[in-house]
Amino acid sequence: MSKWVYSFGAGHNEGKAEMRNLLGGKGANLAEMASIGLPVPPGFTITTEVCTYYYDHGKQYPSELRDQVGEALARVEAAVGTKFGDTHKPLLVSVRSGARVSMPGMMDTVLNLGLNDRTVEGLAAASGDARFAWDSYRRFIQMFGGVVLGIDHHRFEEIIEHVKLDRGVIEDTELTAQDWHRVVDGCKEMVAEVKGQPFPQHPQDQLWAAIGAVFGSWMNPRANTYRRLHDIPANWGTAVNVQAMVFGNMGEDCATGVCFTRDPSTGENIFYGEYLINAQGEDVVAGIRTPQPMSKARAKPGERSMEEAMPGAYQELVKVRETLERHYTDMQDIEFTVQQNKLYMLQTRNGKRTAAASLKIAVDMAREGLIDEKEAIKRVNPAALDQLLHPTLDPKAPRKLLSKGLPASPGAACGTVVFSADEAEARAAKGENVILVRIETSPEDIHGMHAAKGILTTRGGMTSHAAVVARGMGRPCVAGAGGVTVDYGAQALAAGGQIVRAGETITLDGATGEIFIGPVAMVEPQLSGDFATLMEWADKVRRLRVRTNAETPLDADTARKFGAEGIGLCRTEHMFFDPARIGAVRQMIMSETESGRREALSRLLPFQRQDFAELFRIMAGLPVTIRLLDPPLHEFLPHSEAEIAEVASSLGTDVVTMQRRAQELSEANPMLGHRGCRLGISYPEIYEMQARAIFEAAVQIAKETGKAPVPEIMIPLVATRRELEITKAQVDKVAQEVFAESGHHVEYYVGTMIELPRACLTADRIAEVGDFFSFGTNDLTQTTFGLSRDDAGKFLPLYVEKGIMPKDPFVSIDPDGVGALVRIAKEKGRAVKPDLKLGICGEHGGDPASIQFCEEAGLDYVSCSPYRVPVARLAAAQAALSGGGTDRTA
Ligand code: ADP
Ligand code: MG
Ligand code: MG
């Protein structure tokens, strides 16, 4: 015979915390609290399996259920010493929903069940308080009417209002027993009218109707939406908890409250919460009366803390708080009721908290000895760390919402609106804080994005240019704000009838996607203290190294401060876009002869040398991976007619020639076209110049600082061994030249970016030539799926929604396809070179799930944008702790 019902309380606990799948979180924890000796009113839990059975069998219960409920109810009656439906001393119960995971406020609870026209008199007599009895009865009718009978709650409130008006009082508390009796009569009449039958008087009927309603509420639209948003399967079901009532509304020595064992917004180790004297259940959150603080320390003038008002019950609760934290070793969110100065516990669960609180609580608890350092590392969600590394809006600050877009890059930014990158740069140079507002951004806007405090675009998704670049730079960004229109001509943006002009101030919250008019106060991030401590602990356990993707000194510097252990990807093309150099770059592209190109390149050489020298200096002896020029040349061409004319004149040629050349360079499919090492092979002088700049800079810094940098030169888009052989030979030749000229030698490596499936499949041959592999998983994902990242926005969200792909493969590495290729490349590569260094760069390097994959695949390092370095350090530590493979064998 199956067991469908589990008792708790009064020394008979059949459940425990580990049984949350069967008993729901609420039921499991009620049993757990009771079994560790906390004062829990007795009751029983009808399991989630009954819910599943109910929906699988046309809303029928298992046949044994009635008997099992009857037995469990009898046990509660015996424990409390009252009887369900007894007219002298009636037992009242609550009927509470409770799924595996908490679904706050999604499903329904009925309190005071068991009251009817006769038991209410018994309750009045037994408690000696008629007002309390009639108030409880009307609450029951209201809740049962709403939850079980589906009557709109306004209908009940109208009746209460009517009685209040008639009596000339304002507060519920001013109503007498007779008044509540009138309310009850009014409510019953209304229910009879609406439902065509009287309000159920028989307690057994009430009980089964309420149980049915709780199971029914599992499928209500609110709950369905919540489950969809939180990936909770419908077949988990909810449990139903039936529990003896305790009363917080029996007088001035009674109360009810909700609290957290620590402050859920800051994590501070203080008792945090609210309570109300002479109140029941939801009154605390209902907002009808103002709840009061728990501790004296937190009470403002005019408030009366529980510590002062009910010192006995408060001290008992303080002890419970300690017991619970020691037992669960986590911050708890609890519900309690005090009946005539006696404390009862009604719920406990792990409390939801902000990112800041989660960090502080984890570190504090480890220091307090509640958990160890490893557990503290596991407790903090790496993705949440992201929020802590940027300034955020002060939660208390007033604000005026303008519109909302996608939360593309976290952090808050406030500044004056500008509509062009040049304007952004010019104003920022004068010390102004600016927000760059564009319909969308392109590589030509980089300098303006860098200069801006924040970026707002009205088009494009989470992987749009604006979003990716802003995340890389650590700039807050709201992208794809479709409700905002931008008029460059009028220099204004508009949303919902409100207009903001250039020069006026807006504030962005990149973590929520919200856009506010005017300034909003902010709080600065804290990188020392608990943050530093947790990072230190993480570094002790992680195996994966963490490098950064950086090409500017600012990014490199930021990344070092965040703990980067070298550069994993320096994209040299970003250096080409610099306004001071784009002229020479364009000259190089335009010239149709090698000598013309060489001349332009010789003008670029000093710039590049200086760039690399600065990076080497900042990275002080750490590895620096530099990728030689990757994108197709046409990307550097001017776009507008005015720009074309300008370049033509500066190069002493005409617009027609310029346009012809641009046409020659244009490709049907640039992503799969003349780029990467293909460019380096057609125009060897480009890679030669870059190699020279790298070696000259390395020699210079080695001499200057005595700390020789270790350049790792990376050839992009290699598909065949021969490509790498040719380009590597070019690089080696330049190295020998520079070393001979300078009389100085530095250690260096030449390897390749693995970003094509063919490279993975022939990695053994490529490894014979290359010193290292860095998986360029952005392109590897594009080429594996045959899917362009820039066009994926049109259907990828639908794919994810329909479950065709579990996640966006550009955000989180696709373990089955792309991951399989990475593993093949690793095995083939290490079979040839057991010490082959393996890393990953690109957006995936900062994604915790992808980092877990890298740990399991046995890579050596991940590389990510500067602001994600701490995220990666923590995620790498968690991956190591979760027992990811460390197989370094071939
Ligand atoms: P939710 O999941 O929405 O919090 P609950 O089942 O926890 O719903 O109950 C709603 C309110 O009723 C809570 O304030 C709870 O503490 C209170 N409550 C539930 N059961 C009892 C009971 N047996 N005695 C007194 N109050 C109760
Ligand atoms: Mg609750
Ligand atoms: Mg690439």
TrEMBL record:
Domain of life: Bacteria
Any matching Pfam family: PEP-utilizers
EC numbers, comma separated: 2.7.9.1
Amino-acid positions noted as binding substrate in the UniProt annotation, renumbered to this chain: R571, R627, E755, G776, T777, N778, D779
Residues covered by the Pyruvate phosphate dikinase AMP/ATP-binding domain: 21-58, 64-295, 314-368
InterPro entries, per database record: ATP_grasp_subdomain_1 (IPR013815), PEP-util_enz_mobile_dom (IPR008279), PEP_util_AS (IPR018274), PEP_util_C (IPR000121), PEP_util_CS (IPR023151), Phosphohistidine_dom_sf (IPR036637), PPDK_AMP/ATP-bd (IPR002192), Pyruvate_phosphate_dikinase (IPR010121)
Reaction it catalyzes: pyruvate + phosphate + ATP = phosphoenolpyruvate + AMP + diphosphate + H(+)
GO molecular function: ATP binding; kinase activity; metal ion binding; pyruvate, phosphate dikinase activity
Cofactor: Mg(2+)
Active site positions: H465 (tele-phosphohistidine intermediate), C841 (proton donor)
Domain PEP-utilising enzyme mobile residue range list: 432-513
Binding site for Mg(2+): E755, D779
EC top class, as a word: transferase
Location of the PEP-utilising enzyme C-terminal domain: 528-879
Keywords, ordered alphabetically: ATP-binding, Kinase, Magnesium, Metal-binding, Nucleotide-binding, Pyruvate, Transferase
Stated family: Belongs to the PEP-utilizing enzyme family.
Entry function: Catalyzes the reversible phosphorylation of pyruvate and phosphate.
The protein's name: Pyruvate, phosphate dikinase
Organism whose genome encodes this protein: Roseicella aerolata
